[in-house]
Amino acid sequence: MKNKDEAVVVFSGGQDSTTCLLWALKKYKKVYAVSFDYGQRHVLELDCAKKIAEKFGVEHHILDMTLLNQLAPNSLTRNDITVDEDAPKSGTPNSFVDGRNMLFLSFVAVFAKQRGVTDIITGVSQSDYSGYPDCRDVFIKSLNTTLNLAMDYEFDIITPMMWIDKMETWKMADELGGLDIIREMTLTCYNGIKGEGCGHCPACKLRKKGYDLYMAGKGEK
Ligand code: ZN
């Protein structure tokens, strides 16, 4: 019988994965949060993840994935590569890390199976398409099939944010009672500034635009 009381959340400590965590906490009896140390420039990201997990009493695991940085150095891991402010005309943005979501989800799947858990939750979204191929629904479905075949197990990769944009993500957090937690405790900024962030990197712009739209819709400012 499938264990539908427990789930594993791929947890970076950012807005989307924290909203996923809040969502999962309402839906499951036990939630595991798994973060990855991939040599990201901003170790603060892992610190945010740790603090949020602690706040909710969630069992939190940080797995070593520094191998990723060894294989594919990029602007999120290296200080000498600056993050592109705008999307490139073609190809993937330089903040894209080759293989990241595939590796993260594969390792989380092994982690989940060891605990008899089938449900894996990730905050990827195709709506605010950032040019990351591994955030697309088609990729998630394909990997889900592959993981099931690889481990002869019925994983369910669940993507609550797949078809919603940043404004709706704020709305979801608010409905889950976590608006302030997302505002204050998460780190989304490519320049490693917690909460409101630097204000000018692509992640901050997207986050703020969504927030302003949501607040405008609520009749607040
Ligand atoms: Zn920023």
Please explain how this structure is put together.
With 221 residues, this protein is of the alpha/beta class. It has one domain (3-217): HUPs (Rossmann fold). It has helices at 15-27, 44-55, 67-71, 100-114, 137-151, 166-175, 179-185, 202-218, and strands spanning 6-10, 30-37, 59-64, 119-121, 156-158. A 5-stranded parallel sheet has the order 3-2-1-4-5, sandwiched between helices. Helix 1 (15-27) links the parallel strand 1 and strand 2 (30-37). Helix 1 (15-27) runs parallel beside helix 6 (166-175) and helix 6 (166-175) crosses helix 8. It is globular and about 45 Å long. The protein binds zinc ion. Zinc ion binds at residues 189-191, 193, 197-198, 201, 203-204.
Summarize the structure.
It contains eight helices and five strands. With 221 residues, it is an alpha/beta fold.
The CATH class designation is Alpha Beta
Please tell me the CATH architecture by its name.
Answer: 3-Layer(aba) Sandwich
Query: In terms of structural class, how would the helical and strand content be classed?
Result: alpha/beta
Rg is 17 Å
Tally of strands:
5
Low-pLDDT runs: none
What is the number of helices?
8
CATH superfamily: HUPs
Shape, please?
Answer: globular
Salient structural properties:
single chain; 221 residues; Rossmann fold; 5 strands; binds zinc ion
SSE inventory with pairings:
Blueprint: E1 6-10, H1 15-27, E2 30-37, H2 44-55, E3 59-64, H3 67-71, H4 100-114, E4 119-121, H5 137-151, E5 156-158, H6 166-175, H7 179-185, H8 202-218
Parallel strand pairs: 1-2, 1-4, 2-3, 4-5
Helix pairs in contact: 1-6, 6-8
The structure holds zinc ion.
